[in-house]
C-alpha cells in the first residue's frame, strides 16, 4: 500500500509517497499549486506532474489515500482539490488539510505544541494533550498577516515613503524601494503597486530588502523586524493561553519562507521576545520533516 502527501505551494508543488511503515518510497515536484494565485489548469498539471514523479502510473492502484496540504482551504478550495485528485487517482481516499495543520505535524508529529508559519502570510496553529486545537491569525493580508513577508514588506515600503516625505528619519529602505520597483521616483512605486494583479506577492517580495537593510545597520528596518518578532510572540502567547499550556518550553516551533530567509537575525529576536513574553528562555523548534512527508503521514493515519 502507498500513502501520498502533496504540498501545494504558490511557486511549487511537492509530493512524497510512503509505505505502511512510513518509509519514503517516492518523491516528485511540480509547478505552482495554489489556485489563489494560479489558473486551475496550471494547478492540476502541477499536481499531476508531482504525483507521477513520486509514483509510477502502474503503481497508482496501490495508492490507498492522499492528503493535500494547501493554503486557502478555509476559503473553499477543498472541493477544488478533491475534484483534481478524483480525476488523477479515482480510487484513493482524499484528505484536504490547511498548510498550517500539516506544518504542525511536520514540527510535532501529533505531540502537543504550537507552530507559527511566517511565510507570505502568517498564522499560528497548535494542539494540546486533549487533542483540542486552536488557530491564531491567518485572517489574510487586508486585516492581518502580522509577522509575515507581506507585513514586513508593507511596513518597509510605508517607512521608505514616509522618509522620502520627510515624515520619518532617513533610511536605506528609500533607495532599496526604488531599486526593487525599478522606479526613479515614488510615483513609479505607486503605479506598480496599484496596477499589479497580485499586489500581495509584489509587496511581500520587498521583505528581503528590509532584512538586508537591517543587517546593514539600518535602524528603521531593524525595528520593523523587531515589531514582527513581537507580533509572533503575541500569537504564541494567545495560542498557549487558549490551549491551557502552563509551560511552553519545547512546545513552540516556527517555519515559513520569511523565517528561513532571515533566520540568523529573526531567530534571536523572536526568542528574546518570547523571554519577555513568557518570563523564561525558550528555544524555537523547526520542522523535522517536509510538509509533503507530513501530509503523507496524515494520509496513512487517516485510513
Automatic annotation (TrEMBL):
GO molecular function, one term: N-acetylglucosamine kinase activity
Pfam families: BcrAD_BadFG
InterPro entries, sorted: ATPase_BadF, ATPase_NBD, Euk-type_GlcNAc_Kinase
CDD domains per record: ASKHA_NBD_eukNAGK-like
Enzyme class: transferase
EC number: 2.7.1.59
Entry keywords, A to Z: Transferase
Record carries keyword Transferase: yes
Claim: Transferase is one of the keywords in the record: yes
Domain (ATPase BadF/BadG/BcrA/BcrD type) ranges: 4-295
Name of the protein in its database record: ATPase, BadF/BadG/BcrA/BcrD type (Modular protein)
Organism expressing this protein natively: Thermococcus barophilus
Amino acid at each position: 500500500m502507498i500513502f501520498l502527501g502533496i504540498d501545494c505551494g504558490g511557486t511549487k508543488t511537492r509530493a512524497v509517497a510512503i509505505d505502511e511503515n512510513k518509509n519514503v518510497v517516492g518523491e516528485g515536484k511540480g509547478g505552482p499549486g495554489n489556485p489563489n494565485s494560479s489558473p486551475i489548469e496550471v494547478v492540476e498539471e502541477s499536481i499531476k506532474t508531482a504525483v507521477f514523479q513520486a509514483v509510477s502510473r502502474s503503481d497508482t492502484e496501490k495508492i490507498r489515500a492522499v492528503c493535500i496540504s494547501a493554503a486557502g482551504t478555509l476559503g473553499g478550495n477543498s472541493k477544488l482539490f478533491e475534484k483534481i485528485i478524483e480525476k488523477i487517482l479515482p480510487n484513493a481516499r482524499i484528505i484536504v488539510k490547511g498548510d498550517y495543520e500539516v506544518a504542525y505535524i511536520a514540527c510535532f508529529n501529533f505531540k502537543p505544541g504550537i507552530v507559527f508559519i511566517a511565510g507570505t502570510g502568517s498564522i499560528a496553529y497548535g494542539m494540546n494533550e486533549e487533542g483540542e486545537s486552536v488557530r491564531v491569525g491567518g485572517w489574510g493580508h487586508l486585516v492581518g498577516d502580522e509577522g509575515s513577508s507581506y507585513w514586513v514588506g508593507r511596513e518597509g515600503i510605508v517607512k521608505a515613503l514616509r522618509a522620502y516625505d520627510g515624515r520619518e528619519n532617513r533610511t536605506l529602505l528609500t533607495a532599496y524601494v526604488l531599486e526593487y520597483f525599478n522606479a526613479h521616483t515614488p510615483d513609479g512605486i505607486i503605479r506598480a503597486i496599484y496596477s499589479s494583479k497580485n499586489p500581495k506577492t509584489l509587496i511581500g517580495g520587498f521583505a528581503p530588502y528590509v532584512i538586508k537593510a537591517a543587517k546593514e545597520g539600518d535602524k528603521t528596518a531593524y525595528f520593523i523586524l523587531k515589531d514582527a518578532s513581537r507580533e509572533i510572540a503575541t500569537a504564541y502567547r494567545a495560542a498557549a493561553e487558549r490551549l491551557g499550556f502552563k509551560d511552553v518550553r519545547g512546545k513552540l516551533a516556527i517555519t515559513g519562507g520569511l523565517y528561513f530567509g532571515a533566520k540568523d537575525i529573526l531567530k534571536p529576536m523572536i526568542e528574546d521576545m518570547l523571554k519577555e513574553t513568557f518570563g523564561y528562555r525558550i528555544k524555537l523548534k523547526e520542522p523535522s520533516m517536509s510538509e509533503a512527508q507530513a501530509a503523507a503521514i496524515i494520509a496513512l493515519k487517516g485510513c
